[in-house]
Structure to design on (123 residues):
């Protein structure tokens, strides 16, 4: 059982930055950030292989968001720059402890989820 605790959400104006953190209580194989806006499906934002630096991003955040990890602290980060109103959503941290793919933006490949943190970007 892995517990995930997110922090760092908030409200910013368009063009601003936020950094999300996700502290994991145990071993993970892959981790990711997902988001869900009102009335929309959950969307994979960025994923990382916790045993290395392999990462993947959804097209809409490439060049603006960076996923990273601090293995010593068992913590995942999402640095979000140049935020847009369409980035407004609840952001969730997700983890898996095994698998074939080293990273994945498919929510079906994760079994542990955080409680979510709200990100609001105003124009």
């Amino acid at each position: 059982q892995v517990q995930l605790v997110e922090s760092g959400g908030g409200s910013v104006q368009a063009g601003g930055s936020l950094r999300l953190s996700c502290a994991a209580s145990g071993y993970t194989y892959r981790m990711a950030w997902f988001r869900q806006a009102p009335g929309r499906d959950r969307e994979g934002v960025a994923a990382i292989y916790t045993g290395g630096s392999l990462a993947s991003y959804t097209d809409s955040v490439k060049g603006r968001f960076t996923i990273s990890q601090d293995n010593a602290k068992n913590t995942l980060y999402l640095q979000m720059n140049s935020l847009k109103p369409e980035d407004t959503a609840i952001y969730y941290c997700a983890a898996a402890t095994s698998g074939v793919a080293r990273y994945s933006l498919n929510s079906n490949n994760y079994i542990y989820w955080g409680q979510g943190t709200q990100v609001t970007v105003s124009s």
The mean pLDDT is 95. The longest strand covers residues 89-96.
